[in-house]
Design goal:
Layout: E1 6-7, H1 18-28, H2 40-58, E2 67-70, H3 73-88, E3 95-99, H4 104-115, E4 119-123, H5 133-139, E5 144-148, H6 162-172, E6 175-179, E7 198-202, E8 213-217, H7 243-279, E9 284-286, E10 297-302, H8 307-316, E11 319-320, H9 336-340, H10 345-348, E12 351-355, H11 362-382
Parallel strand pairs: 1-11, 3-4, 3-5, 5-6, 6-7
Antiparallel strand pairs: 2-8, 7-8, 9-10, 10-12
Helix pairs in contact: 1-7, 2-7, 3-4, 7-11, 8-11
Bound molecules: pyridoxal-5'-phosphate.
Length: 388
C-alpha cells in the first residue's frame, strides 16, 4: 500500500472534533467575558459554562450541580484523593485502597499521601488487569476512607467491574472514586447505577482540547479544594474558568452521548480486525481482557522485539503508536501495568499499544497490519533472541 499517515494513539490524546472547535471559537474571540461578572458579556460566558456542565453531567447520569471543572484528569485525580482524605483526617480515617496498575496521577498521589501519614493498600490485579472483588472486600478496614479504582486501564484497555465495586463500597460505607479518564465517552458510565461517589475525566481523550477536565463529586461528599482563591466552582476549584475549553468539553460530551452506541460498535469492529491480524504473527499475545476492554484499545506483546524500536519504525511509516503508557515512554523500566498483570520483564519490553478512534478507517487498519508485519520481520531478523 502507498504511504499514509495513521494516528493510532487515541489513548494518549485525540484530535479536536471540528464541531467542538466551532463551538469554542466565539469564546476565544468575541465572547471573552469573565463568567463571574454581572454585565451581558460575562453572563453569556456564564450561560455557556452552565450549558457545558449539563452536557458533561448527562453523559454520566449526574446532576449538573455535582460537576466541577478542572485543568486536566490528573488534577481531578489529585482532588479526589488529597481533597477527600484531607477532609476525613480529623475523623481518624487514614486509610485508602487503590490498585497497583492505576495511572501515575493516582499512584504518585497515593505515595505522596503516604508521606503525609496516610496508609495505602495497593491491590493486585488478575492476569487481565481486573481488581478482584474478594481482594477489595478483604482490604476494607474500619478506618478506610476511600477506594479509588480505575474504570478502564490506559495501557491494556481492561474495563473493571465498576458496578460491583461501587455496590460493595456503598454497602461498606466507603467512598468510591474512579479514574474514568479512559472510559468516559467511550463506554457507558452511570454514576447512580454504579454507585460512584467521585469520578475523574479529561477533555483531550474525547476529542475536546487538552488542559480541561472535570470531576463528579456526589452531593454530600466533602472534598477540600486544592486551589483556593476567588471561589469559582462553588469554592471547590478557584481560578477564572477556561470557558472556551469547558465549552469544548461540553460539546464533546454531547457528541459522544449522541453517538456512543454506534461509535462503540464501529470501534469494536475495527479493533477485532486489527487484533485478529496482529495475532496472526507468531509469538504475539493480546494483553488485557479479551472482551471486557475499551472498544478502540488494541494492546499486545510481541516477542523478541523492543517496543521502543517498533514505535520508532512505525513512525517512519507514518503510524503513531505507543509502547506501554505515553507518560512512561522514555524510561527503560517496563510498564508497571504489564508487570502488574504478571508478565515478565522480557515479554513486557515488546509491548505495543494501538488505540483507534472514530476518525480511523478499515484502510488504516489494513495499512497498519501491512507495515507492522514488515517492521516486525526486520526487527526480528536483527534480534539475538528471536527463534522462529
Ligand atoms: N488517568 C488515566 C487513566 C489516563 O490515561 C490519563 C492520561 O493519559 C490521566 C489520568 C491523566 O489525564 P490528563 O492527561 O488529562 O492529566
Amino acid at each position: 500500500m502507498e504511504d499514509r499517515f495513521v494516528y493510532a494513539d487515541n489513548a494518549a490524546t485525540t484530535p479536536i472534533d471540528k464541531r467542538v472547535l466551532d463551538k469554542m471559537m466565539p469564546f476565544l474571540t468575541t465572547e471573552y467575558g469573565n463568567a463571574s461578572t454581572l454585565y451581558a458579556l460575562g453572563q453569556s460566558s456564564h450561560r455557556a459554562l452552565e450549558e457545558a456542565r449539563e452536557q458533561v453531567a448527562l453523559l454520566m447520569n449526574a446532576d449538573p450541580k455535582e460537576i466541577y471543572f478542572t485543568g486536566c484528569g490528573s488534577e481531578s485525580d489529585n482532588m479526589a484523593l488529597r481533597g477527600y482524605l484531607h477532609s476525613r483526617q480529623a475523623k481518624g480515617k487514614k486509610h485508602m485502597i487503590t490498585s497497583c496498575i492505576e495511572h501515575h496521577a493516582i499512584l504518585y498521589t497515593a505515595q505522596a499521601l503516604e508521606k503525609e501519614g496516610f496508609e495505602v493498600t495497593y491491590l493486585p490485579v488478575d492476569e487481565y488487569g481486573k481488581v478482584r472483588l474478594s481482594d477489595l472486600e478483604a482490604a476494607i478496614r474500619p478506618d478506610t476512607a476511600l477506594v479509588s479504582i480505575m474504570f478502564a486501564n490506559n495501557e491494556i484497555g481492561t474495563v473493571n467491574d465498576i458496578a460491583a465495586i461501587g455496590k460493595l463500597c456503598r454497602e461498606k460505607g466507603v467512598i468510591f472514586h474512579t479514574d474514568a479518564v479512559q472510559a468516559y465517552g467511550h463506554v457507558p458510565v452511570d454514576v447512580k447505577a454504579m454507585n460512584i461517589d467521585m469520578l475523574s475525566l479529561s477533555g483531550h481523550k474525547i476529542n475536546a482540547p487538552k488542559g480541561v477536565g472535570a470531576i463528579y463529586i456526589r452531593r454530600g461528599v466533602m472534598v477540600e479544594p486544592l486551589i483556593t482563591g476567588g471561589g469559582q466552582e462553588k469554592n471547590r476549584r478557584s481560578g477564572t474558568e477556561n470557558i472556551a475549553s469547558i465549552v469544548g468539553l461540553g460539546e464533546a460530551a454531547r457528541i459522544k452521548r449522541e453517538n456512543l452506541d454506534s461509535e462503540m460498535a464501529y470501534l469494536r469492529g475495527l479493533s477485532r480486525k486489527l487484533i485478529d491480524g496482529v495475532l496472526k504473527m507468531p509469538q504475539t499475545i493480546l494483553t488485557g481482557h479479551p472482551t471486557d476492554r475499551l472498544p478502540g484499545t488494541c494492546s499486545f506483546c510481541i516477542n523478541a522485539i523492543e517496543g521502543e524500536s517498533l514505535v520508532l519504525r512505525l513512525d517512519m511509516n507514518g503510524i503513531c503508536a505507543s509502547t506501554g503508557s505515553a507518560c512512561s515512554t522514555g524510561s527503560l523500566e517496563p510498564s508497571h501495568v504489564l508487570l502488574g498483570i504478571g508478565l515478565s520483564h522480557e515479554i513486557s519490553h515488546g509491548s505495543l499499544r494501538l488505540t483507534l478512534g472514530p476518525q480511523n478507517t478499515e484502510e488504516d487498519v489494513d495499512y497498519i497490519l501491512e507495515r507492522l508485519k514488515g517492521v516486525v520481520d526486520v526487527l526480528r531478523a536483527m534480534s539475538p533472541i528471536w527463534h522462529a
